[in-house]
Design a protein that fits this description.
Number of helices: 14
Largest sheet: 12 strands, mixed
Strand content: 15-25%
Order of helices and strands: EEHEEHHEHHHEHEHEHEHEHHEHHEEE
Shape: globular
Structural class: alpha/beta
Helix content: 25-40%
Number of strands: 14
Length: about 425
């Protein structure tokens, strides 16, 4: 980074960069495991091991297998007390902070924010608590039941762990949660409310009640073949595969990063956030809200649709999502260009990690622009007529990009789009 680099955007607000990333995913622990799985088209979906699925219609998921928090920096007390989504968040955040080199002892803690969410929260503690209440009575309910299962407790525990005293929030927008937490903190930093933030999302959704509920909703693929279950944009797609994990990023103003000698990994050049106001679970088939989110993310960075290097799609593998998202790209870029933009989804590799998805996909998208490449889509084989987009089947290398978009869409009509660019010396 040159000494003449402008740390401000044309409107005078701060440029925001990523300096650290961490992941816990069905691919394993760490961003390297996630990246290798996605780039290598590894399917990390397998039969569920956590509970007996004999009476269930769905038998596979993207679990974080063999996870033991004490092997990854948590004390025995923390591993016993914290729900899995919190443990995932801590392990991912420890990695992100280590990479960033952010020294909290040298920082003003009131200027470091936490924006870390979960779509569902401590669902296993909730299920266990109700069971205890019904079977053993009110006196036997865990006294820490509420602070163990509530969704904001990941953000709270992360702030406590690292002594971060700035804004501490948990934005909950279902499957768009991870992206919205990143976007909320980007705006805080851009406008000077914080110098840096720990951001992301976590989920522990591979549980009996979640699998039963999503299955009865008709949202999950019922295939028993992991390689034919999570099929983004494919003609054979028939629902998503539940996944779990956490994605964490350290983001900060470019000014703050350079002042402490940090190496920016990529820049977050735009954020768009819109609502469909249409339906509880279905996306608006007109795709109008998704288009606005993507257009807003591009415009904030000073880009046009012609500048898009690729789209890291929400791409869940459900019929409605993928066709609507395909339409959104065509509406945004035009029919001809919309059919040419490379499109990828990591959900063929990991399944749909719900509240963690936007954060894990942000990591992959940022790595893509930083390394001049576009990842492939695991599982895609048969083009669908209702998804006329350019799905990447083999990794595209040596592809410098001005900007790439990462989409996240949530039940309730929540749309988020993050724009990522290489961090260079240009103002």
């Amino acid at each position: 980074m040159s000494t003449t680099t402008s740390t401000r955007r044309p409107d005078g607000t701060h440029r925001v960069v990523i300096t650290g990333m961490g992941a816990v995913s069905p691919a394993g622990i760490g961003t390297e495991a996630l990246w290798e799985a996605v780039m290598g088209k590894q399917c990390c979906i397998a039969p569920i091991e956590r509970f007996d699925t004999t009476d269930y219609e769905v038998h596979i998921a993207g679990e974080v297998r063999g996870f033991d928090g004490t092997e990854h920096g948590l004390s025995k007390k923390e591993a016993r007390r914290f729900e899995r989504f919190v443990q995932y968040a801590i392990v991912a955040s420890d990695e992100a902070l280590a990479q960033s080199g952010l020294d909290m002892e040298a920082e003003d803690p009131t200027r470091i924010a936490v924006a870390f969410g979960t779509g569902i929260g401590g669902i296993e503690e909730l299920q266990s608590g109700f069971s205890t209440l019904e079977q053993k009575g009110p006196k036997r309910v865990n006294p820490l039941f509420v602070p163990t299962m509530i969704g904001n407790i990941a953000a709270g525990n992360l702030a406590i762990r690292y002594d971060m005293k700035g804004e501490c929030i948990n934005v909950v927008t279902a499957c768009a949660t991870g992206a919205h937490n990143i976007g909320a903190a980007v705006r805080d930093i851009r406008h000077g409310y914080a110098d840096a933030a720990l951001v992301g999302g976590a989920e522990e959704s591979v549980s009996p009640i979640c699998i039963a509920g999503f299955s009865n909703l008709g949202a999950l693929s019922k295939s028993d073949d992991p390689t034919c279950a999570s099929l983004p944009f494919d003609a054979r797609r028939a629902g998503f595969v539940a996944g779990e994990g956490a994605g964490a990023l350290v983001i900060e103003s470019l000014e703050h990063a350079l002042a402490r000698g940090a190496k920016p990994l990529a820049e977050i050049t735009g954020f768009g956030s819109t609502g469909d106001a249409y339906h509880m679970t279905a996306p608006d088939p007109s795709a109008e809200g998704i288009v606005r989110a993507m257009a807003d993310a591009l415009a904030e960075g000073g880009f046009t649709p012609a500048d898009i290097g690729h789209v890291n799609a929400h791409g869940t593998g459900t019929p409605a999502n993928d066709s609507t998202e395909s339409r959104a790209l065509h509406e945004l870029a035009g029919e001809e260009a919309g059919a040419q933009v490379p499109v990828t989804s990591i959900k063929g590799a990991t399944g749909h990690t719900l509240g963690a998805a936007g954060a894990l996909e942000a990591i992959v998208c940022a790595l893509s622009v930083a390394q001049d490449c576009v990842p492939p889509t695991t599982g895609f084989a048969e083009a669908a007529e209702d998804c006329p987009v350019n799905v990447v089947t083999e990794a595209i290398m040596d592809r410098p990009q001005k900007v790439a978009l990462s989409n996240s869409l949530g039940f309730g009509g929540h749309n988020a789009c993050l724009a990522f660019s290489p961090c260079n010396d240009e103002a």
